Amino acid sequence: MANLIIKPTSGGSLILQDEGGTAANTIDASGNTQLAGTLGVTGASTMTGNVTMSGTANNVGTVTAGTFNSTIGSSAALNHDAQKYAWHRGANASADINSNSALNFNLAIFLGSGVTESSGVITIGANGAGLYMVAYGISNNSTETGSNDWSLWINSTKISGTRVYYEYSSGDGGKPSYMGGCTSVVLPLAVSDTVKVYGNGHYWGATADSMTWFAGCRLGMTS
User: Fold this and answer.
1) Which of 24, 50, 94, 206 fits a disulfide with 18 by CB distance 3.0 to 4.6 angstroms?
2) Is the pTM of this model over 0.90?
3) CB 142 within 8 A of CB 217
4) Does residue 8 carry a pLDDT above 90?
5) Which positions ≥6 away from 68 have C-beta within 8 Å?
6) Model confidence over 81-129: pLDDT tens digits?
7) What are the φ and ψ backbone dihedral angles of 42, each rounded to 5 degrees?
8) What is the sign of the dihedral through the CA atoms of 128, 159, 134 and 96?
9) What is the H or E stretch that residue 70 is in?
10) Confidence of residue 33 (pLDDT cuts 50, 70, 90)
11) Is 78 a residue whose pLDDT tops 60?
12) More confident residue, 153 or 173
């Protein structure tokens, strides 16, 4: 069967109009195609040349392979809101907590707009679900002889492997001076989850260079 060829005059464009006489599909003399409406592709499509989109690609589906060029790799903002869902708090004064409670990190160092803080407890805000790195550090108050025993809690659950504990014994040969400990963990958090450092002890705090601190940052989505 012979091919059907539609060819404009030399230097002209091939223009397909809609019912109102407006150009719907234009192919210029170089073969470039411009669509005025929406292009729907239900089957496989292979593009060997460059594709330029002046509007918004609302849903590109799953991209199984490809390479970002140098422009995207160096300057594009692939933003997963790490700063929005992050915090850094400190203790602005020393305190002796005799019974288990949330440690009140009342020194505001940084608080992203996607999380809230109340009496040292962090709450994950809307759209903030994801994988987080959370860390905290505790410093003994000078040569205080009491102990410190703290752990990270999510809602009402103690997170295993996050305990910071040390105590002074008269047989140790001397009092620890500003001895400290810290821990960090990577874990998933959901919207409205609360995160806190919970326990007891006599810790050291200061408005400058506080060595008792609490920080977290969203690394990305969980899926």
Assistant:
1) 24
2) no
3) no
4) no
5) 76
6) 889 999 999 999 988 999 999 999 999 999 999 999 999 999 999 999 9
7) -100, -20
8) positive
9) helix 70-75
10) confident
11) no
12) 153
How far is 103 from 201, CA to CA, in rounded Å? 10
Tokens of 148: 């410190």
Domain-wise residue ranges, the chain: 86-220
In this structure, what token pair is assigned to residue 20? 């109102």
Averaging pLDDT over each range in 77-91, 121-135, 201-215, which range is the top one? 121-135
Cβ atoms of 29 and 43 closer than 8 Å: no
Nearest alpha carbon to residue 212 among 166, 175, 181: 181
Q: Over pLDDT 70: what percentage of the chain?
A: 80
Q: How far apart are CA 223 and CA 221, in angstroms?
A: 6
Q: Quick one: which of 182, 107, 179, 178 has its CA closest to 137? A: 182
138 neighbors 182 (Cβ within 8 angstroms): yes
Cα Rg of the chain (Å, integer) = 30
Q: In angstroms, rounded to a whole number, what is the distance separating the alpha carbons of residues 24 and 66? A: 31
Classify the C-alpha dihedral 140-152-115-75 as positive or negative: positive
106 in Cβ contact with 207 (< 8 Å): no
Residue that has been written with the tokens 């989850």 in this structure? 193
